[in-house]
Structure to design on (186 residues):
């Protein structure tokens, strides 16, 4: 047997990719304490904390509007499963945390979707989970976005547009309710 055949099977590592954006990042440099150059490895039982207090947080944001500990991410294995996941918990008493439009108050927590946008204040963080098999540790890989992750979107029109493309002449919401019309009646 060759040494190649006797070598242990290489494990893939779960990696949490986090892409950060803030509109004032150019002039305020709030991400200067984050390491965007390489992946960082954390033990599976570590809680990754984000906030402005560098003595308590793995990931420090240099901004007085950020809580000392803003939020945490906990790596865990789902019950009766070989699947791994992350749980996100809001640790700020003053600022709500939003994960894909789900608002978390102080000490609220949810499972982090495999791809989501985390927002608080003017901060936007795109989180993407790359699955792996390693049980003792996970990795984080930080990225910096040049443009907003969450684009301002116009609200869709509340007025339905029929298939023929002609909008009804009456505005909805002024005492008239929508009625169904058979295609053959047009």
């Amino acid at each position: 047997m060759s040494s190649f055949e006797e070598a242990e099977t290489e494990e893939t590592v779960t990696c949490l990719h986090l892409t950060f954006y803030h509109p004032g990042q150019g002039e305020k440099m709030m991400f200067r304490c984050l390491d965007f150059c390489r992946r960082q490895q954390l033990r599976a039982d570590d809680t990754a904390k984000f906030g402005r207090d560098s003595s308590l947080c793995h990931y420090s944001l240099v901004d007085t509007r950020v809580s000392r500990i803003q939020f945490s991410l906990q790596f865990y294995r789902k019950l009766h499963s070989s699947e791994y996941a992350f749980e996100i918990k809001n640790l700020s008493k003053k600022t709500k945390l939003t994960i894909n439009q789900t608002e978390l108050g102080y000490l609220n927590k949810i499972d982090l979707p495999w791809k989501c946008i985390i927002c608080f204040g003017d901060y936007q963080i795109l989180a993407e989970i790359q699955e792996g098999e390693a049980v003792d540790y996970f990795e984080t890989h930080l990225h910096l976005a040049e443009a907003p992750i969450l684009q301002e979107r116009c609200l869709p029109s509340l007025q339905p547009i029929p298939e023929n493309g002609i909008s009804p002449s009456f505005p909805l919401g002024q005492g008239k309710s929508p009625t169904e019309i058979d295609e053959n009646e047009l």
Notes: The first helix runs from residue 3 to 6. The longest strand covers residues 123-130. The two ends are 79 Å apart (CA to CA).
